[in-house]
């Protein structure tokens, strides 16, 4: 027996290229497909969770795709007939934001001025360009599947300049002739072969069909909600999107502000990290069971929680505690808000609505133990506002600019509003102090802009109420009325590997 000497220096990329060449020369993938055709093998189907075709592939994509490829190869080697289709995610802001950057746009208005049809065309062309690049990268990675010819994808991107002219596309199952628009809309279909594209006509029709089906059941409604909003993208962001990758460590200037009490001496001391929301303050929340103190500090009488006293007022030498009381005793106290003179605030009856309310979620770990509530600018705020029947002035438009009716503040962008607000509060003698504050703050996962909470009118799909019983006990009629349970029901049909997959999905 003899062994070939093994070089101690292995050049891995060269080795990979050599293997790749061997696969190409022997047409290995095609032969694998041929081998499994016409034989009575068990079926194994894999549909790729698509990669967004907006940029070249990243290392993290390569990692996941390697595993996917591994599973398909393993099943084939175990004698299965493997249906394995790669996919490209083509829609939404991931692609749009990149095209906006390419064209030098700053907001949605630029898209409208450019023309929606032309913008959509640019998005499709970008998808074709980067799906070609990602295809090449995936082939280089060693993935085996039915790939589109990258050059054909590039030609199709060019042909899309005149979308209604006929052209021929050489798909993995032979040449197909049609208008460029039709060909793009049918990528991934059996006659064209190759990867599936979420911009396909079939997928778009399925989405519309699903919406129609929800509409028929009365599940689609126009409602108001306080939602995280990106002023740059001019769109709402779901809570889910924030939880997954939407926080950054940011430093803002927070502010301690006085709310002057109307029916007694002194002021509530409140603290906020979002000064713009003060323009729309309606209430001040205290915890019913916390201990609050009345203190004299220099010339002011202030109310704040006992536990927050030391951190809120650093100059403790000049603090004189005049008394203690529970939050519950402050319930209903009236006060004047810091921006009661603004026209819209007056018009909406906010000055008369100001009062101290009780809320179990108030803490004293940071701030003053008194939480300023602006129902038009925060999620819990809106919930409390509804509970107490409070007005909800909403100061920002789609682009984060303060709307008409806010006097000198109207037209100011939310990102530029902190300093002028501090200045105004100082003039009114309501600003106690500012403080640099570093916290985890939500940002737009698409463009990195800081999010704001807006009170908006949006379209929603009603999931139905949360029924607190196991799926087996939900009756047919309850299920029919409840989208949540229909989804659970169909998910129940799936064989989950591992078994706890469904529970994880629902939690
Ligand atoms: Zn954004």
Query: Percentage of helical residues?
Result: 25-40%
What binds here, in terms of ligands, is: zinc ion
Query: Quick check: average pLDDT?
Result: 91
CATH topology of the largest domain: Isoleucyl-tRNA Synthetase, domain 2
The CATH architecture designation of the largest domain is Alpha-Beta Complex
- Number-wise, the strands total 20
CATH top level of the largest domain is: Alpha Beta
| Largest pleated sheet | 7 strands, mixed
Helical stretch tally: 18
* Total tally of structural domains: 3
Please state the CA-atom Rg, rounded to the nearest Å: 30 Å
Strand coverage percent: 15-25%
Structural class based on helices, strands and sheet pairing: alpha/beta
> Low-confidence spans: pLDDT under 50, at least 5 residues?
none
How far apart the termini lie comes to: 60 Å
> Can you tell me the CATH superfamily of the largest domain?
Valyl/Leucyl/Isoleucyl-tRNA synthetase, editing domain
Oligomer type: single chain
Per the principal axes of the C-alpha atoms, what is the gross shape? elongated
Task: Give a concise summary.
The strands form 6 sheets. Strands 10, 11, 13, 14, 15, 16 and 19 form a 7-stranded mixed sheet that branches. A 3-stranded parallel sheet has the order 2-4-7, with no helix packed on it. With 507 residues, it is of the alpha/beta class. The mean pLDDT is 91.
